[in-house]
Amino acid sequence: MKKIKLEIAGLSYSQSQSGAYALVLVEEQGQRRLPIIIGGFEAQAIAIELEKMTPSRPLTHDLFKSFADAFEVSMQEIIIYNLVEGIFFSKIVCNKENKQIEIDARTSDAIALAVRFGANIYTYEFILASAGILLEGNTDTDSATTETQEEETVTNETDALSIEDLQQELNTAIANEDYEKASQLRDVITKRQSN
Q: What number does CATH give the domain 3-131?
């Protein structure tokens, strides 16, 4: 299966899940974005490394890198290899004395390590096809939302909407860079289309 290279586009605070963040990955040779909901600790670990900050004491991911360096284990890449019921599965591909080793990991931890090792992040087409969000150049949708609409859950908002209306809401969420809501809307559309 052909791997597709991803890059980190950004992190944003989750509006619907307290303490959670949306990590947005973008395909290197395309316009699709892959939003992944991660915890606050992992978001902090990724942000600290992206901003080249040095914490006063090593974080867990820094400790893992130091440990790997001490035992001459290099990280080659991480692969987001599966998506089951909204949960991404990843593996870290390491090398020790020309022997390749694959280690199962949470996607957020794998990415926090990838930024420390300077390792590439990959996924497969079927994951981008089912969970990716295509950025469209121009949308004519109204980007204004009220606070009460933001507080409602996506399920309540979408119950009475047609697929066309859901698609319009999805385009609005993308235009507003609300990738968490966009990923939830995408899931609702996919579920309705499969029924």
A: 3.10.690.10
